[in-house]
Amino acid sequence: MKMMKSLLFLTALTAVIFSCQNNYGSHASTDKLAPSTDSANFTTIQWLDSVKDFGTITEGQKLEVSFKFRNSGDKPLVIERVTPTCGCTVADPPKEPIAPGKEGEIRGVFDSNGRIGPNHKTLTVLSNTRPSTEKSLVFTVIVNKKA
Questions:
Q1: Looking at residue 121, which CATH number applies to its domain?
Q2: What average pLDDT is seen over the chain?
Q3: For the whole model, what pTM was predicted?
Q4: pLDDT above 50: residue 141
Q5: Is residue 11 part of a domain?
Q6: Around 51, how many Cα atoms within 13 Å sit in the side-chain half-sphere?
Q7: Contacts of 103 (CB under 8 A, 6+ apart)
Q8: CA distances from 77 to 32, 88, 92, 108 (A)
C-alpha cells in the first residue's frame, strides 16, 4: 500500500512539473508572454486565401500548398505555430514576424502516399491576432491510385 501511495505521489508531482513548463515554441521567452496571449501586441490579419481545392493528383506525389496573408494591423504579426491535422502534411510557417502592411506565406507539403481517395486537410494557425488567435486553413485533393 505504501508503494502504491509513493507511485501515485510521484505521478502527480511529475504532472505538476510538466504542466508548468513553457510550451510556446521558438517565439516565446521565459520572461515574456507568448504572442498569442499578450493582447497588448495583437494585430489583425487578412487572409488572401484560406481554402484551396487542388483537384486530382496521383498517389505518391508530394503536393506543395501555400496560403498567403497580409498583416493588416499596426503591430508585428507573429505566427507562433502551424499544426497540420495529420502526419501526411508538414507545415513551414514564417520564422520572423511580419511587419504591418507586409505579406507573408504559410507553406506546406502533403505526401499523398497511401492517401487514395478524397482528402480534406486542415492547418491550424496560432498567431497574435484579433478577434481570434486561431485560423483554420483548408485544402482538398483527390488522390488516384498509382497505375
A1: 2.60.40.10
A2: 83
A3: 0.73
A4: yes
A5: no
A6: 1
A7: 48, 68, 69, 70, 71
A8: 16, 27, 16, 19
- Sign (positive or negative) of CA dihedral 24, 31, 94, 62: negative
The total domain count for the chain is 1
> Residue 41 domain-assigned?
yes
Inside any domain, residue 119: yes
User: Pairing state of beta strands 79-84 and 45-47?
Assistant: unpaired
pLDDT at 28 over 70: no
Residue 21 within any structural domain of the chain = no
- Which carries the bigger pLDDT value, residue 3 or residue 63? 63
- pLDDT score of 20: 31
State which H helix or E strand residue 117 sits in.
strand 117-127
127: containing domain: 31-144
